[in-house]
Amino acid sequence: MRIPNHIGIIPDGNRRWALLNNLTKDKGYEHGINPGLEVFKLCQKENIKELTFYGFTIDNTKRPSEQKLAFIQACIDSVMLLTKEDCEILVIGNTESSAFPKALIPFTTRKKFGNGGIKVNFLIHYGWEWDLNLLKESKSSNKHILPYIHSEDISRIDLIIRWGGRRRLSGFLPIQSVYSDFYVIDTYWPDFTSTDFYNALDWYNEQDVTLGG
Amino acid sequence: MRIPNHIGIIPDGNRRWALLNNLTKDKGYEHGINPGLEVFKLCQKENIKELTFYGFTIDNTKRPSEQKLAFIQACIDSVMLLTKEDCEILVIGNTESSAFPKALIPFTTRKKFGNGGIKVNFLIHYGWEWDLNLLKESKSSNKHILPYIHSEDISRIDLIIRWGGRRRLSGFLPIQSVYSDFYVIDTYWPDFTSTDFYNALDWYNEQDVTLGG
């Protein structure tokens, strides 16, 4: 079976899940923490080398403050949970704002936990324009793009899985996503099951790899 | 009904269509010309403001020469067909190579035909890294990206429709695609029917627009 090296996760649908479960929108995010740990453990089991979670964006911080506080806390808790596992964590995002959680500053260079192994990246207070603007500071004549953006330490993504039914990238790592296969799951992220994950892997296994050729 | 302003077309599956119809792979491309005219006319009818076709990429030119000659000719013919219609044509791609067809040089600034109206863009000898490399020559402190890339005259895309079943962007305008809704049709591009187009519009109509918010 052909296994992706690097999986991107767009964990969408927390607020819609909350409303469906008679909760206020801000209560959805805490139910998205455990699915993150589950998907990490499945990736570890299947020898995936790298895993990137779409945490929150600069644009997301324009949402009502109770939602903003809730998704920031859920992201912090998600990172902290993984520090108890064998992995290498990196947080990428614009730290030059009070919206970037101070608790995650130590993770902005990659940190090894336990025996290390799988790389786990979190996009925290990320913005695609922020990411790519660093290109304007490069004078390199190298034709490649990735080495000159803020997220340079996140590699090309093979498979993106999005929960919540929407078929769009919503600003998720445009450079690393140019050749990614994109699998969409209709159920909301807090309702994650391992079947979602294995359906995505089975589908990926049937795709070919051309990398634009 | 909510109609997209700008539709991107990824006309994939020409070679697979050719094999299925007992032709050699290079014979598929000429059967992709007429579908392009059909989709143009449907867009015109539905008041779409802008339409972008993924012609061929720098990477595509590494294919066998009979295929390369065939897709280049199909692209030239597609552009020429539209010069008989009411539209405004722009070709974007790396012209600094013999693989860029000389016949299309006049279209690298937007040209009006008939009564003008709908903007039609063709990506010809395009490469996403080529497109974005221009950012390295910008010293602007403006936080936006689009005004500083080669494809700056192509606007944000609302709906991308891809034929041929693959669920990936394959390097198609990564900046203009960050928020695009992505609709995939399993049949091959030469088998295009207007039903494909209207199914995509119906699906788009059911999506919400958040632009990352």
UniProtKB/TrEMBL annotation, chains A, B:
For molecular function, the Gene Ontology terms on record are: ditrans,polycis-polyprenyl diphosphate synthase [(2E,6E)-farnesyl diphosphate specific] activity
Return the Gene3D superfamilies for the record. Answer: Decaprenyl diphosphate synthase-like (3.40.1180.10)
Q: Which UniProt keywords apply?
A: Transferase
Pfam families named among the record's database cross-references: Prenyltransf (PF01255)
Which processes are annotated in GO (biological process)?
polyprenol biosynthetic process
Family membership: Belongs to the UPP synthase family. Z-FPP synthase subfamily.
Name of this protein: Dihydroorotate dehydrogenase
Recorded source organism is Clostridium sulfidigenes
Q: What is this organism's lineage?
A: Bacteria, Bacillati, Bacillota, Clostridia, Eubacteriales
